[in-house]
């Protein structure tokens, strides 16, 4: 499980940060009529989010989580700032499972 935790943690932070950048780009696009940043950031975030989903699946399968729990963690990458909170909770849960 420890080997799957590190990629999950890294991708949770990257996806969370990119989601905040994407939100800024969307505000620029629709609020200030500056579409260029969102055209660049959107596909990058989408690609990184797909990697995040793979990392969640990898960790979830190794930790033997149920599908509902994994789905909740996957959806955390779609809400700004939530991925940071969920990353801490998941890390704590996995480390407690490893110690047990």
Automatic annotation (TrEMBL):
The keyword Transmembrane applies. The keyword Membrane applies. It is a multi-pass membrane protein. It comes from the Bacteria. Keywords: Cell membrane, Membrane, Transmembrane, Transmembrane helix. Residues 5-91 form the DUF3817 domain. Pfam families: DUF3817 (PF12823). It is found in: Cell membrane. InterPro entries: DUF3817_TM. The chain crosses the membrane at residues 12-32, 44-61, 67-86. This is DUF3817 domain-containing protein. It comes from Nonomuraea mangrovi.
């Amino acid at each position: 499980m420890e080997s799957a935790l590190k990629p999950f943690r890294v991708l949770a932070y990257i996806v969370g940060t990119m989601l905040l950048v994407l939100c800024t780009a969307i505000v620029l696009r629709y609020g200030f009529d500056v579409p260029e940043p969102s055209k660049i950031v959107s596909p990058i975030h989408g690609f990184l989010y797909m990697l995040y989903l793979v990392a969640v699946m990898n960790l979830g399968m190794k930790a033997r989580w149920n599908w509902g729990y994994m789905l909740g963690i996957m959806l955390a990458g779609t809400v700004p700032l939530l991925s940071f909170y969920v990353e801490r909770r998941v890390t704590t849960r996995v480390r407690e499972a490893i110690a047990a």
